């Protein structure tokens, strides 16, 4: 009897770790699309939210590029704050759970890069460094679009 208790305790720990990984890190609905990308299937509402966020990223990138071109750190600071980590508060219920870990990491890193550019513009603006961060952010966007395709679950 005393040998069975540690076995069930260990089994319970492994099951809990597996469930936490499955529901919080791994994501749910990913398959391979015809074009070789990982296809993420989500509800129409969640897909629309993600697409709107990506369009917002593109608009922010354009405005930051304008700020760099005009050598105006105020534009960069404002836009960076609007697209930074504070934006993740309004995420629809169930969305994060449905996303694969790699997609989540790229998304959070992208928000963080906007925060970094806003902070750089406010505290110690340097055009070259800001351009490098913007390029890093764009590399993130390209990698994400090369890796993932978002479709509506049926």
Automatic annotation (TrEMBL):
InterPro entries: Cyt_c/b562. One of its GO terms (biological process) is electron transport chain. It comes from the Bacteria. The lineage of its organism: Bacteria, Pseudomonadati, Bacteroidota, Flavobacteriia, Flavobacteriales. One of its GO terms (molecular function) is electron transfer activity. This is Cytochrome C.
């Amino acid at each position: 009897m005393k040998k069975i208790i540690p076995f069930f305790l260990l089994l319970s720990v492994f099951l809990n770790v597996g469930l936490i990984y499955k529901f919080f890190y791994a994501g749910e609905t990913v398959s391979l699309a015809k074009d070789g990308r990982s296809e993420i299937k989500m509800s129409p509402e969640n897909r629309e939210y993600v697409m709107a966020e990506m369009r917002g990223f593109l608009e922010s990138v354009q405005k930051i590029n304008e700020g760099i071109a005009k050598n105006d750190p105020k534009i960069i600071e404002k836009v960076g704050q609007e697209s930074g980590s504070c934006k993740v508060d309004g995420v629809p219920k169930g969305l994060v759970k449905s996303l694969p870990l790699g997609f989540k990491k790229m998304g959070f890193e992208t928000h963080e890069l906007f925060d970094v550019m806003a902070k750089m513009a406010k505290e110690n603006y340097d055009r070259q460094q800001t351009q490098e961060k913007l390029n890093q952010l764009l590399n993130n966007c390209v990698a994400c679009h090369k890796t993932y395709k978002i479709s509506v679950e049926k």
